[in-house]
Q: What sequence folds into this?
């Protein structure tokens, strides 16, 4: 079975047809630069362009990098503040008439990992964290998503967790992997005071280099790298559209 997913990110908007039996992209994805400023109408137009590039008709799953409740954006930590209070689902419906399912980007990546990747067949409490511009989180209990957890914003030593421990903090401050691993370790230490998962899956671009930092972590919870890497958001969005999971 085929589906279609679009991942809205701060720098690029990426989409592709997805083979939902295998959890893989069907062919090459299309990536278009996120318009700057990334205002809602301009972003909807790009999402529609990505979908039309495949001549796709059918439901489309679309991720958003913030809290969405009933399609409405409630946070906008790393995107233009004009998204706050915007009905994203309705805005996308206008350009994608065959139906849209919206959901948080990390929730989408987590769904994909749970179905096809590192979380496959894992029961109990599983926490997926994506390290990118921010830190996204997706929490699962026996494979069922608890939507809109925002663990990137827990307070760590008086600062927003993602401010110090995201992948962009590593780049911005030019930290070595061991230096950055210490930040991630401290972040996870605070997180583990509040949640007791059975497994933590770490995703985002830095999961490709997981051997450089995951072994340095001292968490009580086992930590494994994500398996779908860059495609998790697109695959998870398509899955969410098919199964009508999301917000
Ligand atoms: C946002 C989350 C998002 C994460 C990754 C955070 O700043 O608050 O909603 O999932 O970044 O994009």
A:
């Amino acid at each position: 079975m085929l589906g279609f997913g679009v991942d809205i990110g701060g720098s690029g908007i990426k989409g592709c047809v997805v083979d939902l039996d295998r959890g893989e992209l069907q062919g090459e994805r299309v990536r278009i630069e996120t318009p700057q400023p990334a205002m809602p109408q301009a972003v909807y137009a790009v999402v529609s362009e990505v979908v039309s590039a495949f001549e796709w008709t059918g439901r489309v799953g679309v991720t958003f990098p913030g809290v969405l409740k009933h399609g409405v954006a409630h946070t906008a930590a790393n995107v233009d503040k004009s998204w706050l209070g915007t009905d994203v689902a309705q805005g996308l419906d206008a350009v994608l008439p065959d139906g849209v399912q919206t959901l948080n980007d990390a929730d989408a990546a987590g769904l994909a990992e749970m179905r096809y990747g590192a979380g496959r067949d894992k029961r109990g409490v599983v926490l997926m964290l994506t390290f990118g511009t921010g830190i996204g989180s997706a929490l699962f209990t026996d494979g069922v998503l608890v939507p809109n957890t925002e663990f990137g914003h827990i307070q760590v030593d008086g600062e927003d967790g993602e401010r110090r421990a995201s992948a962009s903090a590593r780049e911005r401050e030019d930290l070595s992997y061991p230096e950055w691993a210490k930040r991630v370790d401290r972040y996870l230490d605070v997180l583990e005071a509040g949640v007791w998962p059975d497994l933590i899956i770490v995703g985002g671009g830095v999961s490709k280099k997981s051997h450089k930092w995951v072994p340095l972590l001292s968490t009580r919870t086992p930590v494994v790298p994500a398996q779908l890497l860059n495609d998790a958001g697109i695959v998870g969005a398509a899955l969410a559209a098919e199964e009508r999971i999301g917000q």
User: Anything to note?
Assistant: Residues 65-67, 75, 77-78, 104-106, 130, 132, 134, 136, 150, 152, 162 surround beta-D-glucopyranose (CB under 6 Å). The chain has a mean pLDDT of 97. Residues 2-107+231-243 form a domain with the Nucleotidyltransferase; domain 5 fold (CATH 3.30.420.40). The first strand starts at residue 2 and ends at 8.
